[in-house]
Amino acid sequence: MTASPTSAVFILGGARSGKSRFAENLITATGLERHYIATGQAWDDEMQARIDQHKADRGPSWSTHEEPLDLAERLAAIDGEGRAILVDCLTLWLTNLMMEGRDIVAQSVALATWLPQAKAQLVIVSNEVGLGIVPENRMAREFRDHAGRLHQMIAAKAGEVYFIAAGLPLKMKG
C-alpha cells in the first residue's frame, strides 16, 4: 500500500522496550492538549494493575479514552487542532478484534485510511512481534501476520517511524 506520509509518528518495539515512555515524551514535547487512547483491556488483576500504573504515571494532564475495538471511530471523535493523541497500542487492539471475531483487514484499512485526515498530532505505538520464531499454533501465526500487515500499512502512512530497543530509539523513516 503506498500513500503520502502524514504527520503521524509510528513507534514499534518489543515488550518493555521503552516504546510508551518515548511516545509519551514526544506528545508532552508538543505542548498540545494531551489525549491517550488505551486499547488494552483488563482480563485479570495483573493487567488491571498495569493499566492503573500507566494512568498514574501519566498523571492528570492526560485525557484517557479507553477504546478496545472501534479505534478509527474514536480517533475521529476526539481529533482536532491543538491536540496530540497517543494510541497505545495496536497489538492489544488486534488481540481485541480477534477475540471479538471482527474483520481485521477492514478495521486495519479503516484506520490506515483515516490517518491522513487527522488534524491532531498522532503518535501510535505497537509491539513488533515478527522478529522471533514462527509461532506453533494457528491463532498465534494469524496474529503475527495481521500485526505485520497492519504495521506495514501504518508505517506507509506515517511521516516518522521509530524502532525502540533497550530504551533507545532508532529512526527508520522521516
UniProtKB/TrEMBL annotation:
Active site (catalytic residues): 54 (gmp-histidine intermediate)
SUPFAM superfamilies with a match to the protein in the record: P-loop containing nucleoside triphosphate hydrolases
Pfam families reported in the protein's UniProt record: CobU
Annotated GTP binding sites: 13-20, 38-40, 55-58, 66, 88
Pathway noted in the entry: Cofactor biosynthesis; adenosylcobalamin biosynthesis; adenosylcobalamin from cob(II)yrinate a,c-diamide: step 6/7; Cofactor biosynthesis; adenosylcobalamin biosynthesis; adenosylcobalamin from cob(II)yrinate a,c-diamide: step 5/7
EC supergroup of this enzyme: transferase
Keywords: ATP-binding, Cobalamin biosynthesis, GTP-binding, Kinase, Nucleotide-binding, Nucleotidyltransferase, Transferase
EC nos: 2.7.1.156, 2.7.7.62
InterPro entries per the UniProt record, alphabetical: CobU/CobP, P-loop_NTPase
Reaction catalysed by this enzyme: adenosylcob(III)inamide + ATP = adenosylcob(III)inamide phosphate + ADP + H(+); adenosylcob(III)inamide phosphate + GTP + H(+) = adenosylcob(III)inamide-GDP + diphosphate; adenosylcob(III)inamide + GTP = adenosylcob(III)inamide phosphate + GDP + H(+)
GO BP: cobalamin biosynthetic process
Presence of the UniProt keyword Chloroplast in the record: no
Recorded family membership: Belongs to the CobU/CobP family.
Function statement: Catalyzes ATP-dependent phosphorylation of adenosylcobinamide and addition of GMP to adenosylcobinamide phosphate.
NCBIfam families per record: PRK05800.1
Protein name listed in UniProt: Bifunctional adenosylcobalamin biosynthesis protein
